[in-house]
Amino acid sequence: MPTPPARPKLLLFDVNETLLDMSKLQQAVNQEFNSEFAFKQWFSLLLQYSLVDTVTQAYHDFKQIGDAALDMLAQSLGQPARPATRKQELLTLIAELPPHPDVVEGLTMLQQAGFRMVTLTNSPGSTLRKQIAYAGLTSFFEQLLSIDDVKRYKPHPDTYLTACQQLGVVPADALLVAAHGWDTGGALRAGLQAAFVARPGQATYPLAPAPTYTGPTLSDIAGQLVGH
Q1: Which of 82, 132, 177, 211 has the fewest CB atoms nearer than 10 Å to its CB?
Q2: What are phi and psi of 213, to 5 degrees?
Q3: Tell me: the pLDDT tens digits for 155-185?
Q4: Superfamily of domain 10-21+98-226
């Protein structure tokens, strides 16, 4: 029998798609560009070029890259670039997203079980604070951490290791909760534990280590952690 993982002392939560339901933004982007795939293409560009910045040792915040990705999306679809004011209207929606239906229950279970919880997101700190306040989740988290200070995007190992260092926890005692295979893979490669929330349309990366925990909802993940 394999040795069960140590009970984590710190839980790090990804925010976009993991905690927050991005359907409202998805519908707005798809409608704006008259394509049912526009949002997925835009979000993929946002992630891709955040990693381009990290690999090439440049840095623009997530909002700047999101703006540029809207221009790239328009160009790839053969459409005119949107005015700055329209792009701003679309990007503002990222701070006005509700939590997934299972999130409050899952966070409540974990909070009542005594887990330390913080966020760790690629969004800028100012956006993150608006997101968590809008979703009514502020009271669950000890700190709201962004990659802003490190200026390297997840899944660069420095993002996870710096968060652990700031909170006085060794990587093996920290667990990242995310709905993205690239994020759980990054955390595991950095020596953390990871829980994959299998949101619809998401998948783990087969060439990365398997997540420590996997479940369809945050409540399911919480049940596994609390029962550990």
Answers
A1: 82
A2: -135, 145
A3: 999 999 999 999 999 999 999 999 999 999 9
A4: HAD superfamily/HAD-like (3.40.50.1000)
Q: Which residue has tokens 């809207």?
A: 70
The secondary structure of residue 20, as a DSSP letter, is B
Which residue in this structure is represented by tokens 């005594």? 114
- CA–CA separation, 180 and 198 (whole Å): 8
Among the residues of 168-217, which ranges form H helices?
181-189
Composition of the chain by helix, strand, coil, percent to 5: 50, 15, 40
Q: If you write DSSP's letter for every residue of 120-137 in order, what string do you get?
A: EESS-HHHHHHHHHHTT-
Q: How far is CA 192 from CA 155, 171, 184, 186, 206, in A?
A: 12, 5, 9, 9, 18
pLDDT tens digits, 80-112: 999 999 999 999 999 999 999 999 999 999 999
